[in-house]
Amino acid sequence: MKGMLVFYPEKCSGCNVCSTVCSAYHLGVVNPDRSRIRVLRKEQENLDVVNVCVQCEEKFCIQACPFGALSVNPETGAIVVDHEKCTRCGLCIKACPYNGIILDPILNQITICDLCDGDPQCAKYCP
Fold this sequence. Notes:
alpha+beta, Alpha-Beta Plaits, two-stranded antiparallel ribbon, two-stranded antiparallel sheet, 4 helices, RnfB_subfamily, 4Fe-4S dicluster domain-containing protein
């Protein structure tokens, strides 16, 4: 596996820098709700967790897509979406056990972490 993000919940402060940087990098707007990475607070456990594509070996999303809209970038190892083929049926979202796939509420497009073309901005700016 070429690239993947590793998350350490014990180090996460819940600051949302990762989701802010992600939305700014990909969309040119600061909007964590449209980010490819989501920080969630688990109050009962007093813990912040991140939902993001983990670039799993099984590629459940690719297997679930009946339209061939998902593939792996051979250079980065990240999953990429072909928006020409994608029908937004949501089967990839349902297939992902990591909750790492998002339907952008404005663009109405499936979005998945693409590792920022091999230079993940979330990891770069995480305090």
